[in-house]
Design goal:
By secondary structure, the protein is α+β, with helices and mostly antiparallel strands. Helix content is 21%, strand content 32%. It is built from eight helices and 21 strands. The strands form five sheets. Strands 9, 10, 11, 12, 13 and 14 form a six-stranded antiparallel beta sheet that branches. The protein has a five-stranded mixed beta sheet with strand order 5-16-17-19-20, with no helix packed on it. Strand 6 and strand 7 form a beta hairpin.
C-alpha cells in the first residue's frame, strides 16, 4: 500500500495528472487490494476495479481492520466467475450483497469461466465507460467511515483521531458475513523450474496444511495422488477437483530415489467471517450544508474536519454539531503552513484544504 501511494505521488510530481481521475484496478490479488484500499485509503481514487477478488483478504491475510460501510465512499466495479477455483460467484455474491446492505457503492457482474483474466477481459470496454462516468467527488456532502485504527481514520475531509472503548451507538452495527472454506489446498509451492516427470515440491506453505501433516518435504517429486498419475501441475488440479474436504488421500512421492506413500486426510470444511473483529471500531456519519457540518459519532474520542472553500463560505461562521451538541461556531481562517504541509503529503491539487478544525469529545 505504501509503494502504491508513493507511486501515485511520484507520477503527480512528474506529470500533469487530473487528480479526480485516478483509478485503481486489479485482477485476483490485485482486485482484493482494490477492495482493501476502498475500505482503508480511498481518498486518492475515483473508482476501484476488482476483477475476481475477495474483499476479506486484507483482513484475513493482512490483519487490517476493514469495514463494508467504507465502500460507500468510492464506486467499485466488481466481477466474479461461476467456476473460479478461488472466489466463485456463488460465494462472493453473498459478500457483495452484505456490502451493499451496508451502503457500499458496488456495480457487480458475473460471468462463465474460472480464475483467469481471459474470462473477464471482454468486460474492459464496460470498465472504461464506468471510469469515464465516475470522476472523483473530492468533497462529497456526506461521509460514512468506520475504522479500528487511526492509521486508517481518514476519508476525504474527515479524520477519526481517537477511538474509545465505550458502548457503540445504537445505529452502529457490524456488517459481516460467514462463508465456508471448502477449497482443497495441499499447502506447497511447486518448483516451476523442474523439467522432469512429476511435480517437484519447492517450498511448503506456513500453517496447518495437509502437506506438512502427511510429511511432504521440499524436493519430493509427487508422481501419484490416490490412483491418478501426476505428470504435471494440471494433473494435480484435475485430481483436486475429484476430492472434497474431509476425504482421506494418499500421495506417492520420489525421495532420494525411493518411492514413498504418504497418507492423510484433507481438513474438514470450515466456516469463517470475511472480516476479523479483533479490536473495537469507531464510526461516523457526517454531512455538510450551508456552513454547517452535522456529525453522528460512535466510539469517537477526537476527530478533525479538513476545510475547503468549496465546502463552506470562509467569511461566515462554520457550525459543527456533534450528536446534537454544537462544538464549534466560529470563522475558519486559512492556514498557509497547513496548506503547504497537506499538499506536500498528498500532491493532490484538487484537495487543497485551507485549514483543519480539531474536535476533542
Amino acid at each position: 500500500m505504501t509503494n502504491i501511494r508513493n507511486l501515485v505521488r511520484t507520477v503527480k510530481c512528474e506529470l500533469n495528472v487530473d487528480d479526480d481521475r485516478v483509478w485503481m484496478a486489479g485482477f485476483s490479488d490485485g482486485a482484493s487490494a482494490g477492495f482493501a484500499h476502498a475500505m482503508l485509503k480511498p481518498s486518492d481514487y475515483a473508482v476501484f476495479v476488482a476483477l475476481n477478488g475477495h474483499m476479506g483478504v486484507a483482513s484475513l491475510d493482512g490483519d487490517f481492520p476493514t469495514y463494508a460501510p467504507n465502500m460507500s465512499a468510492t464506486p467499485i466495479f466488481a466481477t466474479t466467475t461461476f467456476d473460479d477455483g478461488l472466489y466463485p460467484s456463488h460465494k462472493m455474491r453473498r459478500s457483495i450483497e452484505m456490502a451493499r446492505e451496508a451502503g457500499a457503492d458496488i456495480y457487480y457482474r458475473e460471468f462463465p469461466g474460472g480464475h483467469d483474466f481471459d474470462d473477464v477481459k471482454d468486460e474492459l470496454p464496460a470498465v472504461a465507460r464506468f471510469l469515464e462516468r465516475h470522476p472523483r467527488d473530492p468533497f462529497p456532502s456526506r461521509v460514512v467511515w468506520e475504522t479500528g485504527s487511526t492509521d486508517f481514520g481518514k476519508c476525504r475531509w474527515f479524520a477519526i483521531d481517537r477511538i474509545t472503548t465505550v458502548e457503540p451507538a445504537q445505529w452502529h452495527e457490524d456488517h459481516n458475513v460467514a462463508l465456508t472454506n471448502d477449497r482443497v489446498t495441499i499447502g506447497f509451492q511447486p518448483d516451476y523450474e523442474f523439467e522432469g516427470t512429476g511435480i517437484r515440491v519447492g517450498v511448503l506453505s506456513d500453517g496447518d496444511y495437509p502437506a506438512r501433516n502427511i510429511g511432504l518435504q521440499a524436493g519430493d517429486v509427487i508422481v501419484k495422488a490416490d490412483d491418478a498419475r501426476m505428470d504435471s501441475l494440471p494433473d494435480l488440479n484435475e485430481w483436486k477437483a475429484t476430492v472434497e474436504r474431509g476425504d482421506a488421500f494418499e500421495m506417492t512421492v520420489l525421495r532420494d530415489d525411493e518411492r514413498i506413500a504418504l497418507r492423510g486426510e484433507l481438513p474438514e470444511a470450515a466456516g469463517y467471517l470475511i472480516f476479523k473483529r479483533d479490536v473495537p471500531s469507531a464510526m461516523i456519519r457526517a454531512g455538510f450544508a450551508a456552513n454547517r457540518i452535522d456529525v453522528q459519532t460512535s466510539r469517537v474520542g477526537a476527530f478533525r474536519i479538513l476545510v475547503h472553500p468549496d465546502m463552506i463560505v470562509l467569511d461566515q461562521n462554520l457550525v459543527i454539531e456533534v450528536d446534537g451538541d454544537v462544538v464549534h461556531d466560529d470563522i475558519v481562517k486559512p492556514d498557509l503552513e497547513f496548506m503547504l504541509e497537506n499538499y506536500l503529503d498528498n500532491r493532490d491539487r484538487k484537495l487543497l484544504y485551507v485549514a483543519e478544525v480539531v474536535i476533542e469529545l
